[in-house]
Amino acid sequence: MLNVKEAEARAAALVEAATKAGADAADVLYVGDASTGVQVRLGVLEDIERSEGETIGLRFFIGRKSATISSSDLSGEALAALVERAAAMAKEAPEDPYAGLAPESMLLTGPGVDVDGDDGCDPAPSDLRDRALALEDAARAVPGVTNSEGAGVSAGRSVIALATSHGFCRGYSTSGYSASASVIAGEGAAMQRDYDSHNVRHYADLEPPETIGRRAGERAVRRLDPGKLASGVMPVVFDPRVGGGLVGHLIGAIKGSAIARQTSFLVGREGEAIFPDAITIVDDPHRPRGLRSKPFDGEGLRTAPRKLIESGRLTGWLMDSASARQLGQSPTGHATRGAGGAPGVSATNVALLPGALSPDALIADIRLGLYITELIGHGVNEVTGDYSRGASGFIIENGEIAGAVQEITVAGNLIDMYRTLAAADDLEYRRGVNVPTLRVEGMTVAGA
């Protein structure tokens, strides 16, 4: 795998070769990855894996025609053939009035924001093994845990470099570490499983393995002896582990491509109040050590923090250059891409900001409701906003979380759900999309 400077040079050289071969415009993305992972189960080392790979992708433009081609072979002969094939493909491609590089005036210039995304650490496989063993031991030590699906710890590094024919050439690297365990509680047909995990950019930020393991074990035990919940319309409370999905559906609905295709339930609602006034949702690509932090987007545009929802109101769309041209607007620095295709759109580090109430206070007035810790299936219609998911979790009775329940279905419409959404004060930054405990009124719950 190349280092950042080598990757920048390789990308720039391939852009130069494309322009010499007749490209009116071109860009090149290099992606290199290396990772080591360790898996243990029942106190025994099961597997150690080491993987490395690199891919380089070229977009070759002739007017409004374009072709994209990628290769994992970075030899001179392979890249020369890559350029030749891309040129031939572009000549035969259909015209696309929205195709093209990002506006030159919006490219990142000068020093980018240091997001502290690479700690330079390279832990030994033995360190990863010891951490995984300690993690699983802690989970199995919880009374009631009877079996284990295993624990794993991994470490990796990625190098990204982007070069364009209008002068952009930058790269950066990120490190990443993860730890997880999944265990089983109970016996026979009464068994239940649950897990815990932690993902970080800096190795020093990983939670102690004992903390992750103990939480996994306690979650599994807590799910034992599930009861029944009568069907009805009631408040539903989403644990932070699953509540981020509600914001994820919002992100999908505000992508410029979905708006341009008229395939979003939020078409025509730009600037409208779709959440209560107390709700603000932010996207921060500059969060230090954030899981999705980056100084520039997939087209070389400067990234910047942005409020997606401000005091309940939808502020606009997330756009790459192509969708911005379709909508007659400007790109927002949210382009994302792999080496093998054209840019798409994605948010970065998203957070629904916390409210004023504790989780206990948020549910204190619920006589009968559902607290969800797991969602199943993909029953969300992004065109209409209709929402129907399988769920498991706990009954809320008289303001307190009671026994476990499973095989529940919850249904509603995202527009209606967003209008009644309330947030607790327990926001933690552990994921790409971070939310506190969330409460939604009046959902239809089908019990077992």
TrEMBL record:
InterPro entries: Metalloprtase-TldD/E_C, Metalloprtase-TldD/E_cen_dom, Metalloprtase-TldD/E_N, PmbA, TldD/PmbA_N, TldD/PmbA_sf. Gene3D superfamilies: PmbA/TldD superfamily. SUPFAM superfamilies: Putative modulator of DNA gyrase, PmbA/TldD. Residues 122-224 form the Metalloprotease TldD/E central domain. GO terms for molecular function: metallopeptidase activity. GO terms for biological process: proteolysis. Residues 231-447 form the Metalloprotease TldD/E C-terminal domain. Residues 26-90 form the Metalloprotease TldD/E N-terminal domain. This is TldD/PmbA family protein.
